[in-house]
Design brief:
alpha/beta, binds pyridoxal-5'-phosphate, about 40% helix, about 20% strand, about 220 residues, TIM Barrel
Length: about 220
């Protein structure tokens, strides 16, 4: 099933839209099957869980962190991930920068936008994004490549559209302001139930779990 799901998805995505397989709770065998079917980017929510998978799978695919990162886990994350999609504070960016400096590398990151402006959720508020990006741009070992958003969870993909539009507007504003060292190339938004709407609103990276691997259990 995983193979067919990946093939169908890859065929259906417009050119230029990259697919991240969201692999939380999946086994290394399932992840490998997805890679064999053509997945080139895997997205992990947890550093710990990624570590286990990474030792088996290694660099057969690109690794993106798509879950919240605590600053004290930055060093570990930098050893595994090719991109961190969830930077939402200067403190976290600073911790990534420091870990990268010690390892002699630069980390491509996306800034996570709290497009639903929900106080309890991760991500920077849309109106604070520009100043945060200005600040992070001064770090030498972190390279901002674009934006990511989750949006509030809703069953109906149409309800996600305004949040994708809001994130796209921030993306366009930042791109126009030409901040030195900042690129606005990647707009990561949309999941299994909402990726088509996200693509209509400008996403060029979608993060899909259920539609590849099937339903998740244990309330995750
Ligand atoms: C789980 C997850 C996804 C994918 O969700 P599905 O509904 O299973 O496609 C995408 N992005 C993030 C950040 C996730 O945690």
């Amino acid at each position: 099933m995983i193979k067919e799901n990946v093939k169908k998805l890859l065929e259906s995505l417009p050119e230029g839209v990259r697919l991240v397989a969201a692999v939380k709770t999946r086994t290394p065998e399932e992840i490998l099957e997805a890679i064999q079917a053509g997945i080139t980017i895997i997205g992990h929510n947890y550093v710990q869980e990624a570590e286990a998978g990474f030792s088996l799978i290694g660099r057969q695919a690109e690794w993106h962190l798509i879950g919240h990162l605590q600053s004290n886990k930055a060093k570990k994350a930098v050893g595994i991930f090719d991109m961190i999609e969830t930077v939402d504070s200067f403190k976290l960016a600073g911790a990534i920068d420091k870990a990268c400096r010690n390892m002699g590398r630069t980390m491509p990151v996306l800034i996570e936008i709290n497009s639903g402006e929900e106080p309890q959720k991760a991500g920077v508020m849309p109106h604070d994004a520009a100043s945060l990006i200005q600040e992070i741009a001064s770090l030498k070992h972190v390279r901002i490549m674009g934006l990511m958003t989750m949006g509030p969870f809703t069953g109906d993909p149409e309800e996600a559209r305004p949040y994708f539009q809001k994130t796209r507007a921030v993306f366009d504003d930042i791109a126009k302001s030409n901040i030195p060292g900042v690129k606005m190339e990647i707009l990561s938004m949309g999941m299994s139930n909402s990726y088509q709407v996200a693509i209509e609103e400008g996403a060029n990276m979608v993060r899909i779990g259920t539609k590849i691997f099937g339903e998740r259990y244990a309330g995750q």
